[in-house]
Amino acid sequence: MAFSEFSSVGKKKLGVHVFLIVLDVIALAFAARVNIFQEFYFMADLFPLGLAIATLIILFFTLVLDLAITNVPTARPAFEIGLLYVLSIFWLAFNAFSTARWRNIPLNCNEIPEEYPDERTWCHDVQGLKSIVWIEFVALFFTASFILRYAITQHTRGRKQIWSGPLSRYVPRDLPQRNDFTTRQTFTDYFGARGGSMFEKF
């Protein structure tokens, strides 16, 4: 599999997918540090940890499937839009809950006396976690919104085939106009040889 075989739009989408995974790994690292200090006791700390793990698993496997299988359903715009919006809703709900519970933690961690270095480190980790979980939510939401907007734009231009294949291999190209009563469209009209279809193949 060569990376050059993906379309220009697909490369950007895959890059964003990797970026989301990196953000999630950072959130997972902060959440793990916070929970280790608190001995995995508080729900406000456990929610980001559990959601970060679930998100990482989902994003990783959808990326692997997209790279490994030419026309996997999980890489189609409709599925990705729904999945990312669902994840963003979970992040929004859990972030609101956790942020409310963290409100008593000082924003300026230097207010904690120097005699408590571990508590200072924990405070910095919580502030980092508080920031990254909201960044994760925004990234997921805007990624889903961008894919939705792009897919709708292509659909309104008559390129309805965008919904039937992976966005990573989509090429914004109009198909030849045909007489539906004299010429039957086949699978190869949409997934033909490289350079002549709406989606590029391996």
UniProtKB/TrEMBL annotation:
The keyword Membrane applies. The keyword Membrane applies. This is MARVEL domain-containing protein. The chain crosses the membrane at residues 14-34, 46-69, 81-98, 132-152. Keywords: Membrane, Transmembrane, Transmembrane helix. It comes from Trametes cubensis.
